[in-house]
Design brief:
Layout lengths: L2 E4 L5 E3 L6 E4 L20 E3 L19 E3 L2 H7 L2 E2 L5 H14 L11 H12 L9 E4 L8 E4 L2 E6 L2 E6 L2 E2 L3 E2 L5 E4 L3 H8 L16
Parallel strand pairs: 4-6
Antiparallel strand pairs: 1-2, 3-4, 3-5, 7-13, 8-9, 8-13, 9-10, 10-11, 10-12
Length: 210
Amino acid sequence: MLQNRVNPSGEIIKTPHRGAWLGNRGVLHNKQQQIIRPYKIRAWITCALSFRGRHREVMQPNRWTELFFLDEATAFSAGHRPCFQCRYEDHQRFKTSWLMGNPEFGFNMKTPVAEIDDILHRERVDADQAKITYKEKLADLPDGTFILLQDRPYLLKNSQLYAWTPGGYEKSIPLPDLGTVSVLTPKSIVKMFRAGYLPQVDVTGNHHTK
């Protein structure tokens, strides 16, 4: 079993469960297929599992490390964004919604996505490589956002909370009357959700196992 699955905190974990999306942070593993760093590049992307018939052997020496996510909401919570190449339409939708949700940066569609990557990097990990969270009122958060509740990641969707597990989501619970909560999803991504980007999630139990 390889350590190549990503949880909503951005940690790379071992699990027998497989994912619906592929991720890239650069070369993270050694010749023994062991993770030796949390990232190598600032462009953390989410890719399609298949693209133009290309085939990759997982964790080959000196090749970028294949990471996997339960769903797109998990990938966004970890700090990844859609790939420009294999997910062009999603990337354009991401950039349009991100710009709408974050006008304070003064970016436009001609702004290189690397500048957005720099902001996402400042929002996802601190100098010690620990996950950055922030406080916000639960009632003000949009669908697709992950929060921490009793040290567990929960997804917000349709006024319900769903506890995340590597194999899928547990049965939903009504929104508790908590007021302010710790948010796992990066702040600019939450603003992007408010601007209209709806991430792919599956809380039905019919999870991808590709």
